Amino acid sequence: MDIADLSLAYAGMARIDWADRSMPVLRQIRERFAAERPLEGLRIAACLHVTAETANLVRALQAGGASVALAASNPLSTQDDTAAALVAEYGVQVFARAGIDREGYYRHIHQALDTPPDLVLDDGCDLVNTLHTERTEIVDRVRGGCETTTTGVIRLHQMAREGALRFPVVAVNDTATKHMFDNRYGTGQSTLDGIVRATNTLLAGKSIVIAGFGYVGRGLAERARGLGARVIVTEIDPVKALDAVLQGFAVLPMVEAAAQGDVFITATGNRDVISAEHLAVMKDGAILANSGHFDVEIDVRALADMAVEVNHGIRPQVDEYVLVGGRRLVLLAEGRLVNLAAAEGHPAAVMDMSFADQALTCAWLAEEHERLGPGVHQVPAEIDTEVARLKLASMSVRIDTLTPEQEEYLSSWQHGS
């Protein structure tokens, strides 16, 4: 293991238990796994955010019979007390420290792989990439994996197109429940939470520029408007741009939006979405935040090159870059995920859905991996439906069911109008 302080375990247990109260679906799955043991004897290597919510996923996997080695997928999101509790109370091999550098980050991924895994869980494709580039001696024993973020799925599809992906990976990120709960409602809320915690700024009346109108961008735009902000969307996809326009949002190219925005949030999964060209025309005091996966959406190197002075840590997770002429641009969380670095990530109730998808997909993959070829696969629809059903039940919400006559009508082509 490699964690910051084992003595933090007591505080970590309190944090994990608090999250568990808001994760009834995963709790039901943990109980089911304890009875059925679908992961008996399997070793899982995971590269995920080391948070209390992830800890409850790990507990479910262990209940199913798996042993787990966990590395952090983002150094700024690691909760050192959670890491300590996972080691001390649950016997998990954890390789994660808050704020560790890039070298340490990849060292931890290698350590999680040192005992070759049967299954892998990834958040951003760094672990899978490492398996295919630096740990090729063990890649062939991996039965399959799961990927939980858009950026990772994009990278996996490219690997598959080039014939580089050597085992099946299930795009857990692409389930309807994950898109709805995690990307739209979870990121929409937690990103704004991170910005407000970091800056204590009033969003009402501000012009907020949101780069990307996918599930995350939509959630951000809806919630920013609800807080009284004027929302500007930038997009490269005509369909998504039209969707934003029809929802009443302004849509502009970034080079035009850059001069108008007070707060900028990137949510695209691509690099250099905010570049030197855009930084050059931004207002004094403009706030820059990233809600995409990696710290490449805002060109932080260009920002540093343009600065004549940098004031690091003027508030927690807030760095001020002073440009020629005295104009100041404020970067949050070093350009990394602001909702995890400056806040606490998604509420546990959100991760309940995402990790329920993850846990059930792991069990399915353990059983079905032999019939799946190398490539990117979708989560079976019945898993998505089961997670939604369990969540509704936990909320005491009931829905209608089809009558036999309705089922027969929907399955027949012979009924006229």
Brief description of this entry?
With 417 residues, the chain is an alpha/beta fold.
What does this protein look like?
With 417 residues, this protein is of the alpha/beta class. It folds into 2 domains: 6-178 and 346-394, Rossmann fold (3-Layer(aba) Sandwich); 185-341, NAD(P)-binding Rossmann-like Domain (Rossmann fold, 3-Layer(aba) Sandwich). It has helices at 9-21, 24-36, 52-63, 80-90, 102-113, 126-133, 150-161, 176-199, 215-226, 238-246, 254-257, 276-279, 300-306, 338-341, 348-368, 381-394, 404-410; strands spanning 43-48, 67-72, 93-95, 119-122, 144-147, 168-171, 207-211, 230-234, 250-251, 263-266, 286-290, 307-315, 318-323, 328-332, 375-377. The strands form 2 sheets. The chain has an 8-stranded mixed sheet with strand order 9-8-7-10-11-14-13-12. The chain has a 7-stranded parallel sheet with strand order 3-2-1-4-5-6-15, sandwiched between helices. Helix 2 packs parallel to helix 3 (52-63), helix 3 (52-63) runs parallel beside helix 15 (348-368) and helix 8 (176-199) packs antiparallel against helix 15 (348-368).
Compile the SSE list and pairings.
Blueprint: H1 9-21, H2 24-36, E1 43-48, H3 52-63, E2 67-72, H4 80-90, E3 93-95, H5 102-113, E4 119-122, H6 126-133, E5 144-147, H7 150-161, E6 168-171, H8 176-199, E7 207-211, H9 215-226, E8 230-234, H10 238-246, E9 250-251, H11 254-257, E10 263-266, H12 276-279, E11 286-290, H13 300-306, E12 307-315, E13 318-323, E14 328-332, H14 338-341, H15 348-368, E15 375-377, H16 381-394, H17 404-410
Parallel strand pairs: 1-2, 1-4, 2-3, 4-5, 5-6, 6-15, 7-8, 7-10, 8-9, 10-11, 11-14
Antiparallel strand pairs: 12-13, 13-14
Helix pairs in contact: 1-3, 1-4, 2-3, 2-15, 3-15, 8-9, 8-15, 15-16
